[in-house]
Amino acid sequence: xxxxxxxxxxxxYTKAELAHLYNPTVCIKVALQILRRWILFNLPLLRxxxxxxxxxxxxxxxxxxxxxxxQYLGEP
Length: 76
Hints:
The protein has four helices and two strands; from the N terminus they run E-H-H-H-E-H. The protein has helices at about 15-20, 30-40, 45-50, 65-75, and strands at about 15, 60. The chain has a two-stranded antiparallel sheet. Helix 1 (about 15-20) packs across helix 2 (about 30-40).
């Protein structure tokens, strides 16, 4: 398999897109719930995201917010 196919690109993602990348075996709703819990229970991650303008009701994640999530959770 070509490594270029597996590269994760830091860009703007919808929260649902990113949640599904982290949890591809569950439905979108459950994937969103899981990602939400991961963010809420990781206080350093939550604080850093909030400093970058993150709010729980945001549907889009900026490239900087995605990079922060990847820094704490690893690549999906």
